[in-house]
Design brief:
This protein is α/β, with parallel strands linked by helices. The chain contains 13 helices and 25 strands. Strands 1, 2, 10, 11, 12, 13 and 25 form a seven-stranded mixed beta sheet that branches. Strands 7-18-19-20-17-23 form a six-stranded antiparallel beta sheet. Strands 3-4 form a two-stranded antiparallel ribbon. It is globular. The structure holds flavin-adenine dinucleotide (FAD). The site of flavin-adenine dinucleotide (FAD) has 40 residues, from helix 1, strand 11, helix 7 and helix 13. This is GMC family oxidoreductase N-terminal domain-containing protein.
Length: about 525
């Protein structure tokens, strides 16, 4: 084994959060940072850079290729759960929607025990990250690393969704990232002049020349190294095994699947579970891997277009919609986006014809109540963990998705969409309750928003404290989607980036958790 000299900070994983930390921490020229990324560099790879073809990346060379556990409530299907395996991580393969949800989503973190984490404390970091085309306002930022734009020339189906929503008396929002979120809006996209704005491109590329930053790609961390309760660094695989020391801290940014996996492999987790796999227990921290949350997404409600759809624009979507599955709810729980092409699981594709000029409206549940778990299958780091979001295990989630499916047919019945739709394609008509349930089970997939597996908080299931330090250990933090205690009602890239911005400020001592 090689042992290299140390760095002040070793960042494990160059994804959404890891690139932010590497860039912000090295603003201090006296601090050295090593960023370790298992995947390759993103530079020069056209398929990552081109916004319209992101869906073709799924299951490919830059995806870890995980699957959720077979779910009997989804007809036994093992839903794929893509995660980026390349510099930029999931932000290099994602759909580029920049949506921050509602202020109360973040206030709920503090209520859940994550002291100091609320909308007011995160807003400066959302603003700091943004370069919003509309310029700076009280809510939006300008001049930050991530360029945020709306579709300059929305695809006709995106424009049609906005008109359809207006016909149903929904608000058409000027800005989906303003204080009001209910209604339809043009999407905000992290697309900069036709290029994907991943964190690798926006945060890391501009600072690569800093002498205090070292980036190693093709470097898979297999082990955390400890001296007692102090994390002293990591071992990683890259043409042999290398051990590297972190003089100040090891920062786990490997994402909501790999970060808890590395903790479990290090013997940090539920005592009994670790014992079942012969892992020597370092700390009984039962919350590791628990509290796994994701937003279920129906892939999708498909319609045959009256006219050829033409080339894909923007990210292949362009408009979004938020509404309530039940008028008694305070806030929207359903969120849909338009797809400028077919959007269906293999099972749905087998049953219905979605070939040709077919577009989709895909509804997801942004306040899913089902909570799952990540656990070890083996003590071998090469064996992927068991990842189970337990979709639909709370029956209210099924009700909400059935309601969402039905509402898409209300939209399809508007004059605006009737002008675009020849006929429903999948399903091929509005369904009754039993049929709709069956369609939900066959079409339910992931919105790609896995989080919560190393939740911050104070209770017995909390894994990190509100400064993101792993309970019971020195010099070890988790900074990525894992620490989110309750998923916000939105896509998760912007929240993770704001979280990492705030974490960088905490680590640098520029921000304090209130006592
Ligand atoms: C297909 C897809 C579409 C999505 N669409 C959107 C969207 O449109 N809008 C949105 O807001 N969100 C979207 N998301 C979600 C969002 O991108 C993620 O929530 C966010 O990127 C998570 O950031 P992270 O830093 O927690 O993890 P990641 O960005 O996944 O970063 C983890 C990094 O760690 C690396 N890594 C893992 N294990 C190791 C190891 N052992 N050693 C070294 N490196 C390791 C990985 O390769 C990766 O680079 C999407 C996600 C996917 C996958």
């Amino acid at each position: 084994m090689n042992t290299t000299d140390g760095y002040d900070y070793v960042v494990v994983g160059g994804g959404s959060a890891g690139c932010v930390l590497a860039a912000r921490l090295t603003e201090d020229p006296d601090v050295t940072v090593l960023l370790l990324e298992a995947g390759p560099d993103h530079a020069g790879i056209d398929s990552l850079d081109t916004p319209g073809t992101w869906a073709s990346l799924l299951g490919g060379a830059y995806d870890w290729g995980y699957h959720f556990t077979a779910n009997p409530l989804l007809d036994g299907r093992e839903v794929p759960i893509p995660r980026g395996r390349v510099l930029g991580g999931s932000s290099s393969i994602n759909a580029m929607l920049w949506y921050r949800g509602h202020a109360s989503d973040y206030d709920a973190w503090e209520t859940a025990g994550a002291k100091g984490w609320n909308y007011a404390s995160l807003l400066p970091y959302f603003r700091r990250a943004e370069d919003w085309e509309g310029g700076a306002t009280a809510e939006r930022g300008a001049g930050g690393p991530i360029r945020i734009t709306t579709p300059p020339n929305p695809h006709p189906v995106a424009a049609g969704l906005l008109e359809a929503a207006a016909e149903l008396d929904m608000t058409v929002l000027d800005d989906c990232n303003g204080p009001d979120i209910e209604g339809a809006a043009l999407a905000n996209l992290n697309i900069d002049d036709g290029h994907r704005g991943s964190t690798a491109r926006a945060y890391l590329d501009p600072v690569l020349a800093r002498p205090n930053l070292t980036v190693r790609t093709g470097a898979t961390v297999t082990e955390l190294v400890f001296a007692g309760t102090r994390c002293t660094g990591v071992r990683y695989r890259s043409h042999g095994v290398v051990e590297v020391r972190a003089h100040a801290e090891t920062l786990l940014c490997a994402g909501a699947i790999a970060s808890p996996h590395l903790l479990l492999l290090a013997g940090i987790g539920d005592l009994e579970h670790l014992g079942e796999h012969g892992v020597t227990v370092r700390a009984d921290l039962p919350g590791v891997g628990r509290n796994l949350q994701d937003h279920p997404l129906l892939m999708g409600v498909n319609f045959r277009s009256r006219r050829p759809l033409g080339p894909v624009r923007d990210n292949g979507g362009g408009a979004i919609l938020n509404w309530r599955s039940d008028p008694a709810l305070d806030l929207p729980d359903l969120h849909a986006f338009i797809v400028q092409g077919p959007h269906a699981t293999p099972e749905v594709t087998k049953r219905y014809d979605v070939a040709g000029d077919v577009f989709a409206i895909s509804p997801g549940l942004m306040r899913s109540r089902s909570v799952g778990r990540l656990s070890l299958r083996s003590a071998d780091p090469e064996v992927a963990p068991d990842i189970d979001p337990r979709y639909l295990s709370d029956p209210r989630d099924l009700d909400a998705l059935v309601s969402g499916l039905d509402y898409i047919f209300d939209l399809a019945g508007t004059a605006a969409l009737r002008g675009l739709i020849d006929t429903p394609a999948a399903p091929d008509r509005r369904l009754d309750r039993a049929e709709a349930e069956a369609f939900v089970r066959a079409s339910c997939s992931t919105f790609f928003h896995v989080g919560g597996t190393c939740a911050m908080g104070v209770g017995p299931d909390a894994v990190v404290d509100p400064e993101l330090r792993v309970y019971g250990f020195d010099r070890l933090r988790v900074v990525d989607a894992s620490v989110i205690p309750i998923l916000p009602s939105c896509n998760t890239n912007a929240p993770v980036i704001a979280l990492a911005e705030r974490a960088a400020a905490l680590i640098r001592g520029h921000e304090r958790t209130p006592s």
